[in-house]
Write a structure and sequence with these properties.
Layout lengths: L1 H5 L2 H65 L2 H5 L2 H13 L6 E6 L4 E4 L14 H9 L3 E2 L3 E2 L6 E10 L5 E10 L1 H8 L8 E5 L13 E9 L2 E9 L1
Length: 235
């Protein structure tokens, strides 16, 4: 009763108006929040689908390169390591639309014998690269690390396979380069906001691109000598 006497009629009317408008404010707030959550879920789903598409595409390319290098490693001219014949074979392979940005062959010390795309300086050496060392050591298909290709100057991932003689001893290493910029191009075509970026990581968790607040990652990791691709969304 004391409070009712203390408040003026104007104050009472204002309070009634505020209380009557509160349900509307809450309803609008809930509607906006629901729209936000719905848009977020749609964006999250689109990002996951895009990351998976990149991962599947990458897996298909890796398997294609594995078969291509296996076939080339059995070619008699490749086994003979004739510089001119090797260059001709690799250039013909590249001209047929290989998914690789370049294919090359090096001797067991890492010195380049031939390349499929361009002539390189005498003494060009890949002996310090992981994919080359692993191919020689394990005598099987190997995967490198994220790097800037010395032959192309692009962010790339390298794959290699040893060329073996009849006794199973490595005589050379044939390698292929996969240009990773293709995945960024594909990602940018999906219509994501400008602050949404693609990050690619290798088995060491080294990033090709700087991480952003929201991103899709297509990560490559090696387990038990095999190469696999896993994609996920990180918010």
């Amino acid at each position: 009763m004391a409070f009712s006497k203390w408040c003026s009629i104007r104050t009472k009317l204002l309070g009634i108006m505020l209380l009557s408008g509160l349900p509307l404010v809450l309803a609008v707030g809930l509607l906006l929040y629901g729209n936000y959550k719905g848009a977020y879920r749609e964006s999250e789903h689109a990002a996951i689908v895009t990351a998976q598409a990149i991962a599947y595409r990458h897996n298909a390319q890796v398997e294609g390169l594995r078969h291509l290098l296996s076939a080339l490693a059995q070619h008699p001219d490749i086994k003979a390591r004739n510089r001119g014949a090797c260059a001709r074979i690799l250039q013909e392979t590249m001209s047929q639309g290989s998914s690789s940005s370049n294919i090359g062959i090096a001797d067991t010390k890492g010195y380049l014998i031939a390349s499929g795309t361009r002539s390189l300086a005498h003494g060009f050496n890949i002996g310090d690269r992981k994919y080359f060392r692993d191919a020689l050591r394990n005598r099987r298909f190997s995967v490198g690390e994220l790097a800037i290709s010395r032959t192309l100057g692009k962010a790339s991932l390298h794959f290699a396979l040893p060329v073996l003689d009849a006794s199973g001893e490595p005589q050379a290493v044939i390698f292929a380069i996969l240009d990773l910029n293709q995945f960024e191009t594909f990602f940018n075509q999906q219509g994501f906001p400008a602050d949404c970026n693609l990050t690619i990581s290798d088995h060491r968790d080294d990033h090709l691109h700087l991480p952003w607040r929201k991103r899709v990652e297509s990560r490559q990791s090696r387990q038990a000598g095999d190469y696999r691709t896993v994609a996920w969304w990180r918010g």
